[in-house]
């Protein structure tokens, strides 16, 4: 699966990319219709100290793209939450696809 990593006001991190890739690979194993992923890491200058690390992931799948994002205190938490939201959406999509076959 093609995965593009984009950093917005964040310095690139190989560790973060590996962490995200592992999570995405698990999704890909479960949902083989995923074509590619676009990942964005962003920081938000918020006044609240416990948030501001944003992970956005857009998946290319047959039909409309699937998108989720999360704003957490660190990127690992944001990525995990985003992946979890994507999993829910993918599960719904898979069920819909199966009813059309």
UniProtKB/TrEMBL annotation:
InterPro entries: RHF-like, RHF/RaiA. Gene3D superfamilies: Ribosome hibernation promotion factor-like. SUPFAM superfamilies: Ribosome binding protein Y (YfiA homologue). It holds the Pfam family Ribosomal_S30AE. NCBIfam families: yfiA. This is Sigma-54 modulation protein. It comes from Mesonia mobilis. The lineage of its organism: Bacteria, Pseudomonadati, Bacteroidota, Flavobacteriia, Flavobacteriales.
């Amino acid at each position: 699966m093609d995965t593009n990593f984009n950093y917005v006001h964040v310095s690139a991190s190989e560790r973060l990319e590996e962490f995200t890739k592992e999570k995405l690979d698990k999704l890909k194993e479960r949902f083989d219709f995923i074509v590619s992923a676009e990942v964005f890491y962003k920081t938000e200058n918020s006044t609240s100290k416990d948030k501001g690390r944003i992970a956005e992931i857009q998946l290319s799948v047959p039909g409309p793209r699937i998108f989720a994002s999360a704003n957490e205190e660190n990127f690992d938490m944001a990525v995990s939450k985003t992946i979890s939201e994507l999993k829910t959406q993918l599960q719904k999509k898979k069920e819909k696809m199966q009813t059309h076959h």
